[in-house]
Design a protein that fits this description.
23% of the residues lie in helices and 43% in strands. The protein is α+β, with helices and mostly antiparallel strands. β8 and β9 form a beta hairpin. α1 runs antiparallel to α3. The chain is globular.
Length: 204
């Protein structure tokens, strides 16, 4: 019984460690400060200079960044000596979209970017989302609330022309941990119950 409890305890610690290295969501807000609309994406979206924007990314540093191709295959992005790479997922915020189906539709083109990086010598971060047809690149130095950031968003039309929207006055306005799954807590409470039962049995 002790060996079994020991196994469950180790398993719970492992699961808890993974859970508490939990993903976080980061929200950046600001305004549109520049538009270059060669592809007509900004006109289609009805956006203008000074409009408010808000971008939210989910960041999971326990997972590798990835690039998923139109064909369904993907690349995992490993750390190197200068950068720490990790998983990033754009949850909301894109203000433009590809026009007339976009331009990068070959099997090897990127259908979804899910990557972030931190430059280790100075803390420079990038969060990368979207696709080859609609790319979102967010840049900043400090993960603290109130930190300044800039986002550049691109969207292509079927002729290969692209629209660029820049917001260079963003501020990090929200950081929230993703809740630990209820199953982890149920597993933990069950384990504690087993330990308590074993303790009472040994005491008797």
């Amino acid at each position: 019984m002790k060996k079994l409890l020991g196994f469950f305890l180790v398993a719970f610690v492992g699961i808890s460690t993974t859970a508490f290295a939990a993903p976080f969501t980061y929200t950046f807000t600001g305004t549109i400060t520049s538009i270059d609309d060669d592809a007509g994406a900004a006109n289609t979206a009805g956006i203008a200079l000074g409009d408010s924007v808000s971008y939210t990314f989910l960041i999971d540093r326990a997972r590798e960044g990835r690039e998923t191709r139109n064909a369904g295959s993907y690349n995992l992005l490993a750390d190197n000596g200068a950068y720490d790479t990790f998983f990033a997922d754009l949850l909301s915020g894109s203000v433009i979209d590809e026009v007339n189906g976009g331009f990068y539709n070959n099997p090897g083109d990127i259908a979804e970017y899910n990557s972030g990086s931190e430059r280790l010598n100075d803390g420079y971060h990038t969060f990368f989302g979207g696709s080859d047809n609609n790319t979102i690149n967010l840049e900043f130095f400090n993960l603290g609330v109130g930190s300044s950031a800039m986002v550049t968003e691109y969207a292509f039309n079927n002729a290969g022309l692209f629209t660029t929207v820049i917001s260079n006055d963003l501020s990090l306005t929200g950081v929230s941990p993703v809740p630990v799954p209820a199953a982890v807590w149920l597993f933990g409470s069950g384990l504690l119950g087993l330990i308590g039962l074993n303790y009472r049995k040994n005491k008797a």
